[in-house]
Design brief:
Protein name: HTH araC/xylS-type domain-containing protein
Radius of gyration: 22 Å
InterPro entries: Class_I_gatase-like (IPR029062), DJ-1/PfpI (IPR002818), Homeodomain-like_sf (IPR009057), HTH_AraC (IPR018060), HTH_AraC-typ_CS (IPR018062), INH-QAR (IPR052158)
Shape: globular
CATH class of the largest domain: Alpha Beta
GO molecular function: DNA-binding transcription factor activity; sequence-specific DNA binding
Largest sheet: 6 strands, mixed
Domain HTH araC/xylS-type: 229-327
Number of helices: 16
Oligomer: single chain
CATH architecture of the largest domain: 3-Layer(aba) Sandwich
CATH superfamily of the largest domain: Class I glutamine amidotransferase (GATase) domain
Pfam families: DJ-1_PfpI, HTH_18
Amino acid sequence: MTMQPSPHQPKPRHIALVAYADCQVLDVTGPWQVFASANTLADTRLYDLTLVARGARQVTTNGGLALQANLDWQGLELIGAPDTLLVAGGSGVFEQCRHRYHIDGLRHMADSVRRLGAICSGAFLLAEAGLIDGHRATTHWRHCEELARRYPDVEVVADAIHVEDRGRYTSAGVTAGIDLALSLVEADHGHELAGRVARELVMFLHRPGGQSQFSEALLSQQRAGPRLRPLINVLHATPGGEHDITSMAERLAVTPRHLSRLFQRQLGTSPGEYLTRLRLEAARKELITGEPSLERLAARWRLGGSEQFRRLFQRQYGVSPSIYRARFSSRSTPVPSP
């Protein structure tokens, strides 16, 4: 049975995704399922979905799975510009950048859509079309340097999950497209529905756009040299311990000043800032798994009082602890005052 919009619901938003030979299957199916699940969970048609490809024909993804398109660019123009137009990434994107078909289609449609975006390396097509010149954008971490080199007018944000800049939306690789789609659902219909969709898809966490593409632990292990790595391992194992600049320096048998230089040279930050990030990450995990008191979280992880904790959390994650927990906790309850 086809879902019909409620008389009290606005007109469904039209989401069009652009696919091509050797696109990444999850760049298409991940965001598609987010919008489809929003329809199901809302029990009304919030979104109409269209797959656009050359000749409205079947396209074979780089994983070998074939997808059947609904429309080509001409057909899309006939039914009217979508609300949101997203371009999939994948190994085939570089071949598409050498041809006019999708570039011309994107340029023709760009001014008529409310949101124009790309998942993963789909950003290369937007950049080739000149549609993200002067904008902040991201892509798969492996391709960030190449995107910046090829398109110097694009401000590449190399370590973000997704980026929005004046109606242009880009995401990092593969599953980050799901995070981008969740953020669009949240913008359209609120964090409660976006959270329900994330839980329905068994997403561990709907990640904010500014969150790193990598784990802090993995990055630090890769960047820290053998002199600093033993201390890094201890800090990650016991972030709530009684660590200060003196005790950390003593552990490595160096002066506090030399320790600070090691951190700056290898990790680009100070020992104190690094430890604070680790403690915030530990507190964030507890925040979404049940600890209701900011005061107790701040004390447990040595982050000052509740007000200081709020300020540090806002600076690190871009949202307040209460909003973060409302979005991502399976309980979806607000954080009470201490």
